[in-house]
Design goal:
single chain; Enolase-like, domain 1; alpha+beta; 33% helix; Uridine Diphospho-n-acetylenolpyruvylglucosamine Reductase, domain 3; Uridine Diphospho-n-acetylenolpyruvylglucosamine Reductase, domain 2; 14 strands; 11 helices
């Protein structure tokens, strides 16, 4: 059970959702946009999230789009991870999404909910960072489209009243050589020690990480080191690890030292695979 009372709202258009948010704020309420709701339920029980009202965006058509065009893939923020897994519009994203939580949870977790969540893994964003995706954001000034890199820096940076509507991916990225690896403490379900996603574009490696730091990220400094081809792979990985942002996570899942050990082995296997493609 959610330990507070709140009203539920189900707009059917972007304009209605934005207006609802503004109206509820003017009434002195604290509204939240709502996709799958799994994180709101989890964090509210821990008293990390509270709200007077939730605005469910799942019934807004633009938020449920899955369009494979000639040049562009358009993914609505309210698509469930299971839908992405079953339709497989972007294989690297499919692989990443298919390893978030378990099947029952993925039926509810949405792409936008995972990207915009407070739980710091947010793994679904990794392929989207690698593909230099565009995002469509709704707010009181209407819709805007911008690079994901402009709004996602460790976490998504939305203005009050804004919500993520869609993600757009250039289809040239969809069929690129790719690799994904999620290393857990034990078993096949649970939070990761490290998750690494990689694409190979124009003979250059692009790599993004979750579980290494308390935020998901793609680092150009790390990529520069990994792409110094005249050095042995061990040296490239060593220099890349030195270039990682800090802090390195050190928690119940694994110490910082152990995480870096696992990361080194993961990078070695993935890069050896991709450079053989």
């Amino acid at each position: 059970m959610i330990p507070f009372d709140m009203t539920y709202h189900r707009p059917i258009s972007i304009e209605e959702a934005v207006q609802l948010f503004e109206t509820l704020q003017q009434q002195g309420k604290k509204p939240l946009y709502y996709g799958g709701g799994t994180e709101i339920i989890t964090l509210s029980r821990l008293h990390f999230v509270s709200a007077d009202a939730v605005i469910d965006i799942k019934h807004i058509p633009e938020c449920r789009t899955l369009e494979v065009g000639q040049h562009e893939l358009v993914l609505g923020a309210a698509l469930s991870l299971t839908t992405i897994e079953e339709t497989n519009p972007f294989p690297l994203l499919t692989k990443t999404a298919s390893e978030v939580a378990d099947r029952t949870a993925r039926n509810q977790i949405t792409l936008g909910g995972n990207i915009c969540g407070q739980i710091f893994y947010r793994e679904a964003v990794l392929p989207l960072l690698l593909a230099d995706s565009q995002v469509v954001i709704a707010g009181k000034n209407g819709l805007k489209q911008c690079s994901i890199h402009d709004v996602f820096q460790r976490h998504i940076r939305l203005e009050p009243g804004e919500f993520l509507v869609q993600i757009k991916v250039d289809r040239s990225y969809v069929s690129l050589p790719h690799a994904h690896c999620k290393r857990r403490k034990q078993g096949e379900v649970g939070y990761p020690l490290v998750t690494v996603a990689a694409l190979k574009k124009d003979e250059q490696l692009r790599v993004a990480f979750s579980g290494v730091c308390p935020f998901p990220f793609r680092s150009k400094a790390v990529e520069e080191q990994l792409n110094v081809r005249h050095l042995p792979l061990n040296d490239r990985i060593h220099e890349a690890i030195q270039a990682l942002p800090r802090p390195i996570l050190d928690d119940i899942e694994g110490s910082a030292e152990y995480r870096l050990f696992v990361l080194k082995q993961t990078l070695f296997d993935m890069i050896a695979q991709l450079e053989g493609v």
